[in-house]
Every structure is written in C-alpha cells, then in structure tokens.
C-alpha cells in the first residue's frame, strides 16, 4: 500500500525535495504500514515557499475576481471527478473509513472552492456621501497568508483556507499536519491543473517548528490555524507580535442538550454522529451529552443498542462505519481518558477498550452518570468517548453547558422551538444546532468563541478574515487651510 507523492513539498508550481530536512513517514493507521516517506522543510524550503508566494500574489490580486473564481471553479470540478482517488488517499492517511471520506472530505473541499469562486466577483466596497466630498472603500487582499492544518480533515481544512484566500487575491503557504501530509499535495496539483498560476498555493511539510517559522516571518500578513488550544495560544501570541490577522479554529468540549420532549431517536442519532463519526476526531463533537433525567434511561437504552451495532474494521471496506484513530499516540491518549473515567466513577455503558490487536482502533465508548468535575467531562479527548450527564432544569443545564473554557459548538434537541431559540441564545458557542448536529455547510460561518478560537471560516464572514478595508477620501472642493 503506497501513496508516495512525487516529492515532499510543492512550491512555485513545482515539486520540491530537500533531503537535508529530517525524514518522516506517513502511516496507514489501520495497519501501521508506511505509505509515504517525506522530509520536513528546511529553512531554505520555507524561504523559497514564502518568496514564491510573495512574488505571485501581486499579479493574482490584479486579476478580475471573476477570473480568479473561474480557476477555483475548475479545481472544484476536478476534485469531484477524482473524488474516489482523493478519498482513498485520505483514508490511507487518516484511517477514516471510505464510507466517510467519499462524502465528507474532498467533497466539502470542493464545495468551499465552488462557493468562494462565486463569491469573489460579488465583493464590493461602499460609497460614503460626505456632503460636498465623498469617500469610498476598497476590499484589498492581505498578501501572503499561511494556513496550518490539523490531521482530522486534511483536505477539507486545506480547501477551507485556500478557497477564500485565493478567491480574494491572496497567496497561501499551507503546512498540513505532519500526521497527514498527503492530500494537500494532491490539492496543489489539482489547483495547478485548474490554471492557478505558480506560487499561489504552496505546500510545505513539517511539524510545529516549521509552522512556527512561517508564523513569525515578516512576509506573512495572515495566519489561519486549525489545531488544539495550546497550539492556538502559541500561534496567536507569535502572530500578535507581528500584528498579523488571524483565524484560530481550535478545540472544544461541546454540549449537546437533550430535553425531555425531544425526538429521542433523532437525539440518539445526533449524539452518535457527534461522538463517533471520524472515530470521534472532530473539533465540534458534542462530547458532553446532557440528557434530561426523565428520558435518561430510554436514551441510554437506545444509545447502547445502536452503538453496539457500529461496524468497525478495514477502512477501505465499504461496509466499515468506523476506523482507527490517527496514530498510536492518539489511541494511547484516548485509552488513558477511558481509564480516568472509570477511576473517577463514571458508569461504563459500552465500549471502554481497544478494538482488535492491530491498528489504532478504540471501541465506541459511552459513559453515563458523568459529573461536571470529572476529567472526561472537562478535557477534549478527541476520540470515540461520549460522556452522558443528566439534568433537571433549563437554567441549570445552560449554566453547566457554559461552564468551560471552550466555546466551539453546541446542540439542542427539543420539540419546543421557543425553548430551543431561548437556549441557543444563552449558549456560549460559535455554532449551535437545533435538532441537528455537526452539519457545517460552507454557506454557514464556522468558528469558536472563548478559548475555541477567533475569526470565522466559510460563509460571508470569511471575507473579513482574508481581506482588509482601505478607505479613500475624495476631496471635491477647495482645501480649506487656516494658515
Ligand atoms: P495540534 O495543535 O497538535 O497541531 C495543529 C497544527 O499546528 C499541526 O500542523 C502542527 O504541526 C502545528 N503546530 C504545532 N505547534 C505549532 C507551533 N508552535 N507553531 C505553529 N504551528 C504549530 O492539533 P492536532 O492534534 O493536529 O489536531 C487536533 C486539534 O485540532 C484538536 O484540538 C481539535 O479540536 C482541533 N481542530 C479544530 C478544528 C476547528 O475548526 N475548530 C478543526 C479540526 C481540528
């Protein structure tokens, strides 16, 4: 099983290798097989990528937006035509089942390219009447942007950053996670084939040090990070030193609240999607499931029955519903949290152990009788571990749902829509779902509050984070100087 790219990096429209950079491997998490050998970017490679971006950006910004959009549109079409191939690559790199990658990964990347392709030519400024004089505003690109990705949705993350950056006239240097380096390179090839001029989308490989070198470089105007809160704090601080624009898409410990009048089958389905999809490696997961005491027993019974039927196995098998975690380290971390949950007295409803003896699989796990102070209710686990907590009143559950440093997402299940809107208004979260969970269409702005992040990806909101406003005052009369 091989997924070896032509080289580690893609810079200025060319494949680039520099064997001076530390060697690393990409592994297939289902078996531990090595699927690609790569090298981390050296300072020379990093410099070359930033220089290529700087050189290409000015001409790109000068193109009519409709032309920029046309390139992105073509790229979206190529992605859709190659969805199978890209999905297999993503499955090999992440271990996520093909059943998911075929519908959720490259496809949502194509949506972003298509959305921002159409958005680009609609961007306008304002005219501001000032009596005799007037002013107008221009939306300008920021220049060279840096994107840094996490390993759970590699091609989606690359597209969610590349699409708005390129649509609005910027150049991007993208560093995928060192755990999942491959699909961003495939995207670079596709953008080139779609007609993107050289230097506008560059991919370099490496870990945190490589990311940090990009963030601190004075040529960089903007940094968009998808990653954990601790990394976000470091990246935000460094970007702050350089007064750079940032988008920080960070972690969460989101509440999913199930009221006593909810459709329980739908609520159970949403809780499962919001904890077990991608083996639980989703930032917005509703990992604190608050269930009203009156329906707790019925909820747990349905949940245990359906969770017990989840099909784990070979991610390349079309019947497999759940694959492994991304790495041994992540599996060990998740198993550590499960042990902690047992130690703290949470009641194990199902799962609770490694699945099989090869690959990084963890059985889908549900804990009930979880209390707010338990570690499994406070920390982001990033694995298939659901904590079910019970509650009595609306005020109580809102207070408890908000009692966290995170604020990425939240969900409410109830048939009472007045209550639903009242509760989401009170929840401290960047994205809320009513009678749904974890749906993130590109049309809808996405991002966190509190420690979960700043800025928004997707939707019209993304314009704020990939452009800047220039105000132009137009004097139409005499200059009235007092001296
Ligand atoms: P991570 O924070 O360990 O790494 C994220 C990226 O940052 C990687 O590419 C890494 O190499 C890079 N990095 C690490 N240190 C850096 C530094 N000092 N300077 C610059 N770059 C640095 O996160 P991860 O383990 O890859 O991903 C899981 C985390 O990502 C979870 O916390 C999850 O919630 C979060 N996430 C958030 C979103 C979102 O949109 N909010 C989406 C997906 C994942």
Task: Characterize the structure shown.
- With 483 residues, the chain is α/β, with parallel strands linked by helices.
- Helices cover 38% and strands 20% of the residues.
- The strands form 5 sheets. It has a 7-stranded mixed β-sheet, with helices on both faces. It has a 6-stranded mixed β-sheet with strand order 9-8-7-10-11-19, sandwiched between helices. The chain has a 3-stranded antiparallel β-sheet with strand order 5-6-20.
- A hairpin with a 2-residue loop joins strand 5 and strand 6.
- The mean pLDDT is 98.
- The site of nicotinamide-adenine-dinucleotide has 29 residues, from helix 8 and helix 9.
Shape: globular
Cofactors and ligands present? Answer: nicotinamide-adenine-dinucleotide
> Which percent bin holds the helix content?
25-40%
Chain-averaged pLDDT: 98
What is the CA-based Rg, rounded? Answer: 23 Å
Secondary-structure content class: alpha/beta
């Amino acid at each position: 099983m091989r997924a070896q790219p032509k080289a580690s990096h893609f810079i200025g429209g060319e494949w680039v290798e520099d064997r001076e950079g530390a060697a690393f491997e990409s592994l297939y998490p289902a078996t531990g097989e090595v699927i690609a050998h790569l090298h981390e970017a050296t300072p020379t490679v990093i410099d070359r990528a930033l220089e290529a971006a700087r050189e290409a950006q000015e001409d790109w910004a000068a193109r009519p937006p409709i032309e920029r959009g046309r390139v992105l549109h073509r790229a979206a079409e190529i992605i859709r035509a190659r969805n199978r191939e890209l999905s297999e690559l993503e499955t090999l790199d992440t271990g996520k089942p093909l059943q998911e990658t075929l519908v959720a990964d490259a496809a949502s990347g194509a949506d972003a390219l298509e959305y921002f392709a159409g958005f680009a030519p609609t961007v306008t400024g304002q005219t501001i009447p000032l009596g005799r004089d007037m002013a107008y505003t221009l939306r300008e690109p920021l220049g060279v942007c840096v994107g840094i990705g996490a390993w759970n949705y590699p091609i989606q993350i690359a597209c969610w950053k590349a699409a708005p950056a390129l649509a609005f006239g910027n150049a991007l240097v993208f560093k995928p996670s060192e755990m999942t380096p491959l699909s961003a390179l495939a995207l670079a090839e596709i953008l080139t084939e779609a007609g993107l001029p050289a230097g506008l989308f560059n991919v370099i490989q490496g870990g945190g040090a490589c990311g940090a070198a990009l963030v601190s470089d004075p040529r960089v105007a903007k940094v968009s990070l998808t990653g954990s809160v601790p990394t976000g704090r470091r990246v935000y601080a460094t970007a702050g030193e350089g007064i750079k624009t940032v988008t920080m898409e960070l972690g969460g410990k989101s509440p999913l609240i199930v009221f006593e009048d909810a459709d329980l089958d739908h609520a159970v389905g949403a809780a499962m999607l919001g904890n077990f999809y991608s083996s639980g490696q989703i930032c917005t997961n509703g990992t604190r499931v608050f269930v009203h005491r009156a329906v707790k027993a019925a909820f747990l019974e349905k949940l245990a029955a359906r969770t017990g039927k989840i099909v784990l196995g070979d991610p390349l098998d079309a019947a497999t519903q759940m694959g492994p975690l991304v790495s041994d380290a992540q599996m060990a971390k998740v198993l550590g949290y499960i042990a902690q949950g047992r130690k703290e007295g949470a009641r194990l409803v199902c799962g609770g152990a490694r699945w099989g003896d090869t690959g990084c699989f963890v059985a889908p796990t549900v804990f009930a009788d979880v209390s707010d102070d338990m570690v499994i209710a406070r920390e982001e686990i990033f694995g298939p571990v659901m904590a079910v907590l019970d509650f009595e009143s609306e005020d109580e559950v809102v207070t408890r749902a908000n009692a966290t440093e995170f604020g990425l997402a939240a969900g409410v299940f109830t048939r009472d829509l007045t209550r639903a809107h009242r509760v989401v208004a009170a929840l401290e979260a960047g994205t809320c779902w009513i009678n749904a969970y974890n749906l993130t269409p590109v049309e809808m702005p996405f991002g966190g509050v509190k420690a979960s992040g700043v800025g928004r990806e997707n939707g019209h909101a993304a314009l704020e984070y990939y452009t800047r406003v220039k105000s132009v005052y137009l004097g139409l009369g005499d200059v009235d100087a007092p001296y």
